[in-house]
Each structure stands twice: as C-alpha cells, then as structure tokens.
Description:
Structural class: alpha+beta
Number of helices: 3
Order of helices and strands: HEEEHEH
Amino acid sequence: xxxxxxxxxxxxxxxxxxxxxxxxxxxxxxxxxxxxxxxxxxxxxxxxxxxxxxxxxxxxxxxxxxxxxxxxxxxxxxxxxxxxxx
Length: 86
C-alpha cells in the first residue's frame, strides 16, 4: 500500500518517538536504519524522530513539523498510527 501511495504522488512521512538516526555502541540505529533494512527508506519524504522535537506524542509538535517539511496544511493530509514490531 505504501508503494502505491508513493507512486501515485503522495508525500509520505513518519513521526516516531524513536530516534531518527543515531549511533549506539558503534552501530547505526533508529528509524532510518530500520527503513533502509526493509528497503522502504525511499518511500518517505520526511522522518521526524525524538531528537527533532522538544515535546513527544501526543503533543502535535512532531506532526506539525512533518507537515511543515512536507509543505502540507492540516486540511490536506491523512494521518495513520501504525505500530510495527521493527
């Protein structure tokens, strides 16, 4: 489904309470690394991690930042919360 949305021209973004991209004990970790392993990184135009905001969910700061980076307004987006064990 994500591939279809992307190919149809939808801008996709992720807002996560995980780190976006960081080093831990000599290894790269975070959402970017996980998406790269799944060959899904190129589907997303913006990825917001905990290091990008000062207030975590459910505060809307991360969503607002993602919308700003996507150049989208609150009236023209669809949000979905999906929890995947990755």
